[in-house]
Every structure is written in C-alpha cells, then in structure tokens.
Amino acid sequence: MTWRHGLFVHWPVDPEALRTQLPDQVTLETRDGQAWLSVLPFVLTDVGIRRTPSPFRTAFAELNVRTYVRYRGDPGLFFFSIDIGSSLVATLVDLVTRLPVSRARMRVSGSDEGIVFSSTRLDDASRTASADRVPAQFAATYRPDGPVFTPEPETLAYWLVERRRFYAPANGGVLAGEIAHEPWPLQPATVTIHENTLFAANDLPTPAADPVVHFCDELSMTGSILRRLS
After folding, report:
1. Domains in the chain: boundaries
2. Taking the model in full, what pTM does it have?
3. Which CATH number fits domain 2-228: 3.40.50.10240, 2.60.40.420, 2.40.400.10, 2.60.40.1220?
4. 48-55 mean pLDDT
5. Which is deepest, 51, 70, 143, 147, by most CB within 10 Å?
C-alpha cells in the first residue's frame, strides 16, 4: 500500500489523564514527562495482498487517533480509533482484527490552501450508539511548509513517527501487528483545524497545548496480519 497526503498532528497531554484509558497489558510511554496523543488523516492507495493485480486493489481515506506505549519493553503504538472511509474495508478489518475500527464518511480534496480533509464517523454494528454520545468529527486544511527531512534518532520527531509495531488487547493477552517502510520523509506543515471532536468521542483528555505538526506526501509500505504475543 502507499500512504499519500498524510498529516501527523501530535499533542502533549498529562500522562495521568491518559493512563487510565489504556488496557492493563500495555504501559504508557512518555517523553520528558509528557504523554502524547496523535491524530493522523491520510489516504491509502494500491491496498491489497502482496503481488495481487491492480484490479484487486483499492484506495480509501483513513483517520487514526493513537498514543505511544510499550509491551514488555518493546515500543509501539496503541490506537484509540481507526476511522475508514470505505464501508467494505472497515467491515473486513473489524471482522478479522480487534482494532477499534469504524466506518466514516470522508472527503479529501485539494485547494489553493492545501489538502482539505473531513471525516464524520458513522454508527455501525460494532459500536453502541447513544443519545449523549459525542459524534466523532474532524475537518482540517493542511499543507507542507518547508523542505523534506528525515528525522534523526533521539529527536522528538523520530520518537513520534518511527514506530513499526502496534498493539491491541485480546482476551487478557496482546495482539501485535507491524508495518515496514523506509524512514518517513517528513516536512514541516501548516494546519488549520476547523473541527475536532475526536478526543471527546473517544473519552480522551482534550489537549491544552499547541500541537507538533508534520506532513508526509507519499511513502510505500507493507503491513502484517496481527499475531498473538501472549
């Protein structure tokens, strides 16, 4: 698959406000005393099983909310939500994984101001809707604002993006999946967030500080099937 037109928006948050939202199997990871919440809007193209012909591949927009954890000392990602702009793909992922996947109505376009991305989560059979539930909505306009760079080890940018494993709880144990790709070709970015209810919709603390923002235009990658670690 190929990542396109993607944005990383990272907010520092109080670790104590976030730690209770994680399953016992993983440990929240902090940097300089801060935990981090990240929102990632992007598009995936050429998605399919390795070596399958193009007619059997697909493309869709995606929106992730995640944080940074360790399992038995190994760093990785933990997803609070994964909204997918394809009902078929969202249904398939929901059936074969324990990831928190939802269907969403998404629109991605270009303008003079940059990439325009919007998402509204839709009710589905895997989630219980209620009258007081906050709708998960996100809308932003963003663009690169500087030259491409590869984040150096020990920097905050490297710590935030260069993680190739993600975890999900599974009946008292842990599932893990991995992605493989070249180092992220990042650019500084400018973003205007028009709407963001993702934190409230996921029962997460609302960050007070300004975010750290990066853009990545394109990166090819592969992903593994989740496997049980314990």
Report:
1. 2-228
2. 0.91
3. 2.40.400.10
4. 67
5. 143
Contact in structure between 68 and 83 (CB atoms under 8 Å) = no
Per-residue pLDDT tens for 60-118? 999 999 999 999 999 999 999 999 999 888 888 888 787 899 999 999 999 889 999 99
Quick one: tokens of 135? 């709708």
Report the distance separating Cα 12 and Cα 141, nearest Å.
21
SS3 sequence, the chain? CEEEEEEEEEEEECHHHHHCCCCCCCEECCECCEEEEEEEEEEEEEECCCCCCHHHCEEEEEEEEEEEEEECCEEEEEEEEEEECCHHHHHHHHHHCCCCEEEEEEEEEEECCEEEEEEEECCCCCCCCCCCCCCCEEEEEEEECCCCECCCCCCHHHHHHCCCEEEEEECCEEEEEEEEECCCCEEEEEEEEEEECHHHHCCCCCCCCCCEEEEEEEEEEEECCCEECC
Query: Residues 212, 156: contact at Cβ < 8 Å?
Result: yes
pLDDT of residue 18 exceeding 90: yes
The residue among 131 and 106 whose pLDDT is bigger is: 106
- CA nearest neighbour of 85 among 130, 126, 117: 117
Q: Are 83 and 72 in contact (CB under 8 A)?
A: no
What gap in Å lies between CA 71 and CA 185, rounded to an integer?
27
Structure tokens at 21: 């939202």
Distance (Å, whole) CA 166 – CA 193: 26
128: pLDDT strictly greater than 60: no
